Structure prediction request, 83 residues.
Amino acid sequence: MKLPKRLNSILKKKELFLDEMRSRLENTALRLQGNLFEQIIEEIIPQVDVKDGAILETANNYRLISQLDQVYSTFNNQVVKTK
Prediction:
């Protein structure tokens, strides 16, 4: 069954709108992912105990792992507040 032109036009506009919104969401997610990664690189990685390029099993490194949750929570709260 062929759709009326007006209905077909509405459906095409809706499809374009949904595609644009999906693209915006994907771009925002990628940007936020990059921001979180940068924050982890800046706040956590410089503090990691390493020797000869290998991460050591130290109390400090275990503490840093637990700090990742705090970094994520802080980041998440900042993102939610700005949206």
